[in-house]
Amino acid sequence: MSSPLISQRQLDRVMNYIDIGGGEGAQLASGGNRLGGELANGFFVEPTVFAGASNEMTIAQEEIFGPVASVIPFDEPEDALRIANDTPFGLAGGVWTQNLATAHKVSRGINAGTVWVNCYGVLDPAVGFGGTKMSGYGWKGAKEHVESYLYPKAVYINLG
């Protein structure tokens, strides 16, 4: 189950990306449809996974903001980093590994504002959230966000 999208416009946008993925040669492994039944009147899309995707495909290069994932094979962690960073966006990324050294190396190497290891989408209000590159600069939440509205000032008064 996935959460609803924000609007009909976003639903149409996500469905268009699903069509583009298939049209560019990725194989639809799961999902790809609007949810029906009791959810037919909402903006729900099945969680969608494309296999056989390449990093040059639109579904791998653009922020979809919907439940669509592209599976791109790689052999070495360096290949994964090259693939992950070969995009104009950098909001978030995820790493799945049983090797803690690999988790640290890859998470440091991903050019994104947030990187999750062995989980995805976990947020803590005490930790800011932001992106890099075309995904934006700066942070929302946490003290960094509050401090962006503040400025320091030094005042010196001689009373003598």
Automatic annotation (TrEMBL):
- Annotated Pfam families: Aldedh
User: Which stretches make up the Aldehyde dehydrogenase domain?
Assistant: 3-155
Q: Which domain of life is it from?
A: Bacteria
Name the InterPro entries on file: Ald_DH/histidinol_DH, Ald_DH_C, Ald_DH_N, Aldehyde_DH_dom
Return the SUPFAM superfamilies for the record: ALDH-like
Could you list this entry's UniProt keywords, alphabetically sorted. Answer: Oxidoreductase
- Has UniProt tagged this entry with the keyword 4Fe-4S? no
- Give the Gene Ontology MF terms in alphabetical order: oxidoreductase activity, acting on the aldehyde or oxo group of donors, NAD or NADP as acceptor
The record's section on PANTHER family has:
ALDEHYDE DEHYDROGENASE-RELATED
In Swiss-Prot or TrEMBL terms, this protein is called Betaine aldehyde dehydrogenase
Q: What is the lineage of its organism?
A: Bacteria, Bacillati, Actinomycetota, Actinomycetes, Mycobacteriales
